Amino acid sequence: MKKVIGFVCIICMIALYSCSNQSSSLKESEKGKPVVMIFGDFKCSYCKKVEENVMSQLKKKYIDTNNVKFQYVNLAFLGKDSIIGSRAQHAVNHYAPKYSLQFQKSMFKQQQDEDKQWITEKLVDRQIDKLNISKEDKKAIKKDYKTNGSTSWKEAKKDQQIAKDNHIKQVPTAFVKGKKVEDPYHFSNYVELLENE
């Protein structure tokens, strides 16, 4: 009986340890800044609500002032075309990181019915062309997101793994300092976790 109890205790300790480590990468960056991580998909209409209701304020108060590390994790699971948008955002983030959120906002503005395949290379290229960056950067971004095995392809795959590792089943899902934002549609919920925890 003692062996069974000991075995159960060990299993419980392992489970608790893995649960506490599961979102450790969500808590703070290597520079000690709190992490705000939003899991979404450009085709998700609810994710667009987060973009419209939260992102401009979050950007102004926390991201632009360098007070948080922000990461948008694109699950790219609402259609075969979703992955195109995810790869493109990673390419923008790689070559012109200051324009990543502008590209994200632009993609959400283009949103159509999630059941349609509307994220095309042509549409994405138009959004890239709107960015105030050099022609060389635009060309590099377009090449990268369209090239199998490129940096953006690998990063898009990593996004899907991050979501899997953190058991993300729906979007939008947001975390602030490792804690899930229960209602991700209101900026005040992010502020509360950033300021009071």
UniProtKB/TrEMBL annotation:
<keyword id="KW-0676">Redox-active center</keyword>
<protein>
    <submittedName>
        <fullName>Glutaredoxin</fullName>
    </submittedName>
</protein>
<keyword id="KW-0560">Oxidoreductase</keyword>
<dbReference type="InterPro" id="IPR036249">
    <property type="entry name" value="Thioredoxin-like_sf"/>
</dbReference>
<keyword id="KW-1015">Disulfide bond</keyword>
<dbReference type="GO" id="GO:0016491">
    <property type="term" value="F:oxidoreductase activity"/>
</dbReference>
<keyword id="KW-0732">Signal</keyword>
<dbReference type="InterPro" id="IPR012336">
    <property type="entry name" value="Thioredoxin-like_fold"/>
</dbReference>
<feature type="domain" description="Thioredoxin-like fold">
    <location>
        <begin position="30"/>
        <end position="195"/>
    </location>
</feature>
<comment type="similarity">
    <text>Belongs to the thioredoxin family. DsbA subfamily.</text>
</comment>
<dbReference type="Pfam" id="PF13462">
    <property type="entry name" value="Thioredoxin_4"/>
</dbReference>
